[in-house]
Amino acid sequence: MNMDTYTISTLIQRISKLFGLTSYIQIADDSYRKSKFWLCYGILLSLSMVFGIIYNYQTELNDNIKGFYNYSYLTSLETFIAIAVVSQIISLFNGNRIINIYKQFHRYDITSKLKPSKEQMFKTVLIEIIFALAFIFTHSYVTATNIVNFFKSVDIFSAFQCWFSFFCANAVLWINNTQFYYFLIMLKQRYACLNELLQEIRENNNALKFEKVPELYGFLCDTLEYVNNTFSFQIILILIRCFFQTTWLCYAITMKIIINLQENHLISYHVGNFTVPFFIILFLVKILTSIVTCAQTANEANRTPILVHKLINRTEDPAIREQLELFSLQLAQRKIRFTACGFFPLDFTLLYSIAGAVTTYLIILIQFQLSENKDVPSVSSASTSLIVTNVTSLSEV
């Protein structure tokens, strides 16, 4: 049994089944089959989350919700659940692609006979799962509590349905992210083992071990592209969710600072404790983790051409040197990087784009709120103008 490939994946698959993300079952190490039961289970779970969107909309109608802040809050929640439903449906239809990824890793490990460390992978994935569970329970509880405390037409069943919808939606997005991280860690470890082999060849001047390197590197690159294509759209959904939630939470804090709203206003349930800045930090960490993981994997893959060039300079055998030069030309044509469906690269340049977008949309939200409250005496025009000016300056920087 290939412990590195399948032991940790079994844990992820079981959690994925619980939240309706897989429509297959594992028979043996490299053998899977479709399951109608888990497919139906996933569809039912999607319908339950859709019912959560309908419930939020019905609550909005029953309580005659007014005000831009309240509307924006409910819209952000409905958008969040809709993103989770779409992500779950994509996961169900991506079952065959996930199976193919596991099989590709299995074939690579058999062919290469290189054994990456499984201890580091296990710790990383375990920390990610624990972190995800803590966030899922906390965010779902706080969101459901805010709705129950504020809206009048909420009974016990509605409160449970609200909590269940947000719990499942959070779980779906985090588990998809965790599975993507798992595949990236597997790729990074195998690129690292391949680079260690090249380093050993260069130091010992043993060019005979180089024969399988081009084939193994090409196999890993094909697998990386396959993983990227499989999860690209889901990564976009997760980043969109983090972007909207971060922007809206910053907007909530800003409104609490510059506007003296009544105690029974919805904002008092959001910014009245530590949860809002805590969630902002978590969403930022999630964005940063996605970018760092993709960047580190791509950097490890792009380290191979550097080692090959060093190996060329130390090789005296004309035949081996010709193979190395040919491989070097192939590497030059295959620059490794992760993208979100080709729209934007998943690297550190994305942080600047997100920071600018958050600042821009935060200004827009503040201006909408100020236009709604322009006749309210409790709003300090001087303080609001100063804050908007400062935020605008930050956006330009």
UniProtKB/TrEMBL annotation:
Which keywords does the record carry? Cell membrane, Coiled coil, Membrane, Receptor, Transducer, Transmembrane, Transmembrane helix
Q: Which organism is it from?
A: Diploptera punctata
Q: What does this protein do?
A: Gustatory receptor which mediates acceptance or avoidance behavior, depending on its substrates.
Give start-end ranges for the coiled-coil region(s). 184-211
Keyword match Cell membrane: yes
Where can this protein be found? Cell membrane
The entry assigns this protein to a family as follows: Belongs to the insect chemoreceptor superfamily. Gustatory receptor (GR) family.
Topology with regard to the membrane?
A: Multi-pass membrane protein
- Per the UniProt record, which residue ranges are transmembrane? 37-57, 69-93, 125-144, 156-176, 235-254, 274-295, 343-368
Per the annotation, which location comes first and is thus the protein's main one?
A: membrane
Q: Which GO terms describe its cellular component?
A: axon; dendrite; neuronal cell body; plasma membrane
Give one GO biological process term. Answer: chemosensory behavior
This protein is called: Gustatory receptor
